[in-house]
Amino acid sequence: MGQIRGDVLDAHGITSSRGFLPESDPLRAFETGDHDPDIARYLEELDRLGDALPELLDDGMFREVGDALPSPPPGTFDELSTEEVKRLCLLASFFASGYVHQTGDGEVDRLPAGIAIPLYHSSKRIGRKPIAAYDTICLRNYELIDDTHGFQVENIRPVQRFTDLADETWFVAIHVAIEAAAGEALTACALAQEAIEAGNPAEVHSALSDIETSLERQTAIMQRMTEGNDPQAFVDGFRPYYQGFDGIVFEGVSAIASEPQHLRGGSGAQSSALPSIDAAFGIDHEQTELIDKLDDMRSYMPAVHREAIEAFADGPDILAFVQSTGDPELVDAFNRCIDGIVAFREVHFTQVAQYIRELAEDATGTGGTDYMTFLPKMKHETERQRLPMP
C-alpha cells in the first residue's frame, strides 16, 4: 500500500501554508545575467512582450507581433533553470491563447513557430499539456504584494494577465488564496492516513477537525468572488482566453509535425486540491462520460500533482476506517468534513451558473465539460458519502 508521509508530501510539493502552490514564488522576470547574450536578449524580449500583452490584445495587434516573434536561440533550453522553464511555459501559454483567441478577429488554425516551439518544449519539460491551463493561469501565476501579509486575497496579484481589468486580477487572486487555504486540509489528510496506519483514532479526529476548518476557509474565500469580479467583465473580458484549442497546428514543432492539436482550456477542474481530498476520503464518483472527462482533466495538471492524487488514493481510506470504528465522535467529525466539501461545491456551482450560464447561455465550461449536469452530480455523490450515526 502506498503511504502518505512527510517525505512524500515534500516529494509532491505540498505544504500546509501553500498547498499545491510552489514552495517559492514564481519568477516575475527571467534571470538573464548568466546567460549567453543571444539567449539573454531573447528572454528579455519575452518579458517585455508579456508586459505588453494586455495592450496588444486590446488593440487587436498581438497576432501581428506573434507572427514576427523569433524561435528560441540554439541552446536556450539547455541553459534555463527549472524555474525559468516554468516562466517560459507561463508566458508562451499566454501568448498562445492570446494569439488563437484574440477577440474581434477571425479564427486561426495555427500557432506561429515563435510561440509554438517554446510552448511545446517547455510544457514537455515539466510534464503538462501545451496550453494555458489552471497551473499557468493560477498556480504559477501570482506574486504577493507584501510578503508579510501572506495569501490574503487583497495581497495577491497575477504575474501575467490577458487584460488590464481588475476583475482578472481578482479572479486569479481568489483561486490562489483558495489553493493556499487548501494546504491545511491536504496536510491533515496525510496525517489522518498516517494515524490510520498507526491505529490512532484520536489523531484521526484531530486531523478531521483541521480538514473541516480548511474547507470552511476555502468556501469563505470562494464566496468573495463576486466582490471584485463582475460577471460581464469575466464573460466578455478574459474568459475567452481560457478556451481550448480545436484543430491548431503547432508550426515548427517536428514532434507533432502538421497534426492539428485539440486541447481543453483552463478550468478549475484542473486543480488537484479537491480531487486529493476526495481520494483520501474514499469518495467515489460513478464512472460516466462526465467523470471520464474529469479524469482527462488530470492530464492537464502538473505531473507531480497527478501523482499526489494517486498517492492519496493509494493510502488508507478515511471513510472505511471511520466506518469500521463505530465511534460516534469520529463519524460526526467525518460527516462535517463531507458537509464542508458539499458546501464548497454548492458555492462553486452557484457561481458558475451566475458567471457563465446566465450571461453566456453556454452549458460547456472552458475545459469542455457540461457543468450544469456535472457539478450537481458531483455534489449529490459527495452527499451520499455521509455515514449514519452509530
Question: Would you kindly provide a written description of the structure presented here, covering whatever features stand out?
Answer:
The protein has 390 residues and is mostly helical. It has a single domain, classed as Methane Monooxygenase Hydroxylase, Chain G, domain 1 (Up-down Bundle). It is built from 17 helices and 5 strands. It has a 3-stranded mixed sheet with strand order 1-4-5, covered by helices on one side. The protein is globular and about 70 Å long.
Entry keywords:
mainly alpha; Methane Monooxygenase Hydroxylase, Chain G, domain 1; three-stranded mixed β-sheet; globular
Which helices and strands appear, and what pairs or packs with what?
Blueprint: H1 6-11, H2 37-58, H3 62-68, H4 76-79, H5 82-101, E1 110-111, H6 113-125, H7 134-139, E2 143-144, E3 156-157, H8 166-198, H9 201-222, H10 225-228, H11 231-238, E4 245-250, E5 261-263, H12 273-281, H13 289-297, H14 303-314, H15 318-325, H16 328-360, H17 371-383
Parallel strand pairs: 1-4
Antiparallel strand pairs: 2-3, 4-5
Helix pairs in contact: 2-5, 5-6, 8-9, 8-12, 9-16, 11-16, 12-14, 16-17
How many DSSP H or I helices? 17
Mean pLDDT: 90
CATH class: Mainly Alpha
Distance between the termini: 29 Å
- Spatial arrangement of strands, main beta sheet: 1-4-5
How many domain modules? 1
Compressed to H and E, one letter per element, the order equals HHHHHEHHEEHHHHEEHHHHHH
As for the CATH topology, it is Methane Monooxygenase Hydroxylase, Chain G, domain 1
Q: Give the C-alpha Rg.
A: 21 Å
Determine the strand fraction and express it as a percent band: under 5%
Per DSSP E runs of 2 or more residues, the count of β-strands stands at: 5
Structure classification: mainly alpha
